[in-house]
Amino acid sequence: MLKLFRKAFLSLGLVAALAACDIAPPIAPPTATLSGPASTRADFAAVTARMRPVATQICRERSPHLDCNFLVVLDDRPGQPPNAFHSRDETGRPIIAFTEALIDDLQSHDEIALIFGHEAAHHIADHIPRLQREAMTGALIGGLVAAISGVDQQTAQRLVNASATIGARRYSKRFELEADRIGALIAARAGYDPLRGAELFRRIPDPGNQFLGTHPPNAERLREVQRAVAAMNSGQPI
């Protein structure tokens, strides 16, 4: 049965895939405040240079047990969709990656900053190991059901995989909102406007409130950023 659990984690790719935050292309062509590709690359570099030390400081304040030395990378592989994600290398160092397609779709420094803050927040809130624990719990339950039911090996593997996915996704929407909230704080501390950055949620296709979906509806994410800004303005903790 332990072999089944190992296969479940290999197939899920939890360390990176469950941390990915796909940003679909805008429904309508944007009225860009950032100009062409060369300019947007320079804008991305400028924003990340300003955001990185702030994210590091907040990471050290909130999660001093973690490696807070963020590595920021640009995924320039051809054909990659608009996307940003966070992961960790084998030493635990946090990695934040943007695809070139995403940078081309963004309209302002504030949008870059909010997405950067969101991905940094996933690390600060320790979401990867928390998702892994939930997935392991689900896999264990699936394995027990398979053992009690006496199903064959192939059916048992499918049951373990499905249970691991359900276990992780039970919390994925909650983690996304937590990352939006902390991400707004990071962006604001770096001098950017989280509300302007959250205009992104008015523009991209809405995932809706799907059962076991990985992301909350856009309106809910926009409200979360608005609540975070209101809390900061009133001196309340985020």
Protein topology:
Layout: H1 2-12, E1 20-22, H2 37-62, E2 71-75, E3 83-88, E4 94-99, H3 100-105, H4 109-124, H5 127-149, H6 153-189, H7 194-197, H8 200-203, H9 218-233
Parallel strand pairs: 2-4
Antiparallel strand pairs: 1-3, 3-4
Helix pairs in contact: 1-5, 1-6, 2-4, 4-6, 5-6, 6-9
Percent of residues in helices: 55-70%
| Major β-sheet annotation | 4 strands, mixed
| Low-pLDDT runs | 1-19, 22-32, 209-213
Shape category: globular
Strand content: 5-15%
Strand order in the sheet with the most strands: 1-3-4-2
Number of domains: 1
- How many helices in DSSP terms? 9
Using only CA atoms, what is the Rg?
19 Å
The string of secondary-structure elements, in order, is: HEHEEEHHHHHHH
Gap between N and C termini: 42 Å
The strand count comes to 4
Mean pLDDT: 77
Classify the secondary structure makeup into a structural class.
alpha+beta
3D architecture notes:
Strands 1-3-4-2 form a four-stranded mixed sheet. Helices cover 60% and strands 8% of the residues. The protein has helices at 2-12, 37-62, 100-105, 109-124, 127-149, 153-189, 194-197, 200-203, 218-233; strands spanning 20-22, 71-75, 83-88, 94-99. Helix 1 (2-12) packs across helix 5, helix 1 packs across helix 6 (153-189) and helix 5 (127-149) runs antiparallel to helix 6. The model is unreliable at 1-19, 22-32 and 209-213 (pLDDT under 50). It has 238 residues and is an alpha+beta fold. The chain has one domain. The protein is globular. The termini are far apart.
